[in-house]
Design a protein that fits this description.
The chain has 202 residues and is of the alpha+beta class. It has six helices and eight strands. The strands form two sheets. A four-stranded mixed beta sheet has the order 5-1-7-6, with helices on both faces. The two termini are 33 Å apart.
Length: 202
């Protein structure tokens, strides 16, 4: 990790010298300094946690979940981590079912998001890379038990969600909804999952 930090500094110095046609300035810019501070605080090779989320609309209301967290009861999209052996779309289908008991079929990618979060309980500094999908809602399986920590599924209007931002699990809850309302869509074909991901170990 320390060698990576040194490499970043040297790269920045060379770049600044090239840009300005003068002697290298040994003082890295503010943005690079912030990156170096972040890297230094992480003992292991940095990797983002990949997650998925669903933006589901029905008659002007959107599907969210209430969940118990270390910070209290929070609102979130139906969302969760990408598991081994599945594509992001498959993960989203699974998470919606596990957290809301609804079937879900992704039809478009709304956006890809980065968010950094410090866990209240452990102090862990975590970065999330989230794929947010929209799609078609299917059957509701009322008999299904929801995931641990999930209190209930709720349907909210955009204004209702905006009015309770202090209860959002992360800024991405509202950001992804606003992107959906702005009409942002990308084809699912933009995301390619190689067959090797789905193969069982030999």
């Amino acid at each position: 990790m320390a060698l990576r930090a040194v490499g970043l500094v040297l790269s920045a110095v060379r770049l600044r010298a090239t840009d300005h046609g003068s002697a290298p300035d040994a003082e890295p810019d503010t943005k690079l300094s912030a990156r170096l501070a972040i890297i230094a605080a992480m003992p292991n090779r940095w990797k983002p946690n990949v997650t998925v989320a669903a933006i589901v609309e029905r008659e002007g209301r959107f599907l969210f979940i209430e969940e118990n967290t270390a910070d209290g009861l929070r609102l979130n999209n139906p969302a969760g981590h990408l598991d081994p052996g599945e594509s992001p779309m498959d993960a989203c289908v699974r998470e919606v079912l596990e957290e809301t008991a609804y079937d879900f079929e992704p039809t478009a990618l709304v956006g890809v998001y980065l968010n950094r979060f410090r866990r209240t309980r452990t102090g862990d500094d975590i970065t999330y890379l989230r794929f947010a999908f929209t799609g078609n809602l299917g059957a509701h399986h009322a008999w299904r038990q929801l995931d641990d920590g999930i209190v209930r599924a709720v349907w909210l209007t955009p204004d209702e969600l905006r009015s309770c931002s202090s209860r959002h699990r992360s800024p991405l809850v509202l950001q992804s909804l606003e992107d959906y309302l702005a009409g942002r869509r990308a084809p699912l074909e933009l995301i390619h999952t190689d067959a090797s991901v789905l193969q069982a170990p030999r």
